[in-house]
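Can anyone check this?
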Amino acid sequence: MKRLSYLYLILPFILFLFGWVRLTIAIPLAVIIFFALWQLLKESPLTPSSLFTHHWSLNTAYWLLLTVLWLFLSGIGGYAFQNWDHNWRNVVMRDLMNFNWPVYYAQPESGPVKMLVYYVGYWLPSALTGKLLNWRAANSFLFLWTFLGIILITYNLGSIFKTSKFKATLLLIFFSGLDVLGVLFFPQDYPTLLPPITHLEIWAGNLQYSSFTTQLFWVFNQAIPAWLIITLIVILSREAAKQSSKSLEIASGKEQRRPRNDELILLWSLCFFFAPFASVGLLPYVLIELIKQTDFKSPFKNLHWEQIAAALIIFLLSALFFTANTAAQSRGFQSLPLTKYLAFFLLEGGILWLMLAPSKYKDPRWIVTGVLLAVIPFIQIGNDRDFVMRASIAPLFYLMLMTGETLFEKTVIRVSLITRYSLVALLVLGAFTPIYEINRSIYRTYDYYFLQDSCSACDFSSDPITQLAHPDVPEKEHPGTLTADALPTLKFMTDELSRNFIANVRQTFFYKYLASR
């Protein structure tokens, strides 16, 4: 499963390398990455996964069924209701399928060279399938690709929590901040508690820490790779802690291979490729692991330079590509009213974080998580709230991990029954947010398949679409259809949001020296 996880993460970058970079540059860089991958996979344990070797139990069947249902209701693949953000997810994959790589919308002899500049990595295997077959095949492959990612993530979570994969998946699905209390204590026109299909996440306006179900239902392309990378980092950390024990080395009769810092650096660079904002929130945790695992007397002793080289290639190429888009050049700090900030921090993770203090206060992950959740709301990058929502992916995931460790692991001895019951109560209150997201999908999907007449206006308009407004009421978006397909292409878009995807790259280093033409 570890080998499969690395292949899952590196394959999209290989496609990006050969699709976006000149062959004279791409081929030698690919050789380095393939060599690093071969060395990494060669040294991974050969023990087969229990998923494939043991007889399947009811828990395994329930786990797989639960992941399929969760994925189905997310709208990925177009089989169930898609939330508004899928307009942008769908159009990116459609343009990746219909245009040559790299995607140029205009490439005149002089003047602006318009190019798709976005973190497109997650869609590349599916878009390639669409190029070879059709749009429906691309969506089907995207569904299967995401299913594989969720299986890898929840399998790893089961190992981390030392519990069944079914229970670990339930925690991932229903873990959330206390949005229901935010709506209750700060009432407004929208969202409301009734009907139970509203988007509770936006109770604090432009501040939002998205639940994992919300992340899957709205921004799966960033969430899935970030979650998988975090689980791999945690597993590496635990392997390092076990293998540092002298008694384990003596018992095994030989010194076992310790996880290396180069793997951590490689994983972080892959996170930057898939989800750069999420990688910012992940960086402090990677630094913690690097400090813990580094022997400062000989810090370079166990490094494999081919993996460091691969990490640098992935990071530098991604950075040069992303910075070709100037949409995120607006950076600074935003001031927040004290009452609004305190309410947001406490309800969106702060209370749960404080409840973990008795057992986790010595854990540097707990300290970093609290600092990040407290600081991220003040940081503004770009014109929208994307940074707050996406940079928080890592601290929220680690908050869930520490909660799961406290509830599932029997070795935790400092946690009283009162604390455990309090944590469960907070999880139950938080579960309202993913339940509302799931309810909305069930409601709209059931309405489409069983109640309404066939849609007579599902095709795209013949007129080019130049802008797309934010939804006022997400549950009423694109009535009569399941899929959020308002945008046939980004080519003609001129609004503010489209600047996140389209850039004039003529004067950029990436276009001048690296991009294939």
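Reply from J.R.: I decoded it. The first strand starts at residue 104 and ends at 106.
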